[in-house]
Amino acid sequence: MSRILDQRILLLVISFSASVQSTKVLSEWKNCGDPECEKAMSRVLATTDYLGPDCRYLNFKTGEEIIVYSKLSRENENLWAGSKGKDFGYFPRDAVKVEEVFIGDEVEVLTKETDFLCLHEDKNVFE
Questions:
Q1: Domain containing residue 77: CATH number
Q2: For the segment 9-48, what is each residue's pLDDT rounded down to a tens digit?
Q3: Is residue 10 in some structural domain?
Q4: Which residues form the SH3 domain (predicted)?
Q5: For the chain, what is the domain count?
Q6: Whole-number pLDDT of residue 116
């Protein structure tokens, strides 16, 4: 009985550490087209297939169109956030090429906890 309990505790610890790792803050700052980050900034085209490390990332295939809503800044400038159909997430800027710019003047704003929300199997996980 004690061994089963030890195994369950170990699985719980592993599960919890995986959740925390997948919801860490990627950047304190981001650039957007407006202070609320509601306006689309640009339209980009995927130049390579991309499969992100966790559910916060947008997966796509070469040639797919993505609408960009924000770009992380300062400590993690390589990640942009956008949508493809109903899917939304982060992706590396070097995996896409800009096709059309909608907003030229970017606004830098602080990120929020909800920017790094991981939606997985109908569960909301926060750091």
A1: 2.30.30.40
A2: 544 434 444 444 445 889 999 999 999 999 999 999 999 9
A3: no
A4: 39-101
A5: 1
A6: 85
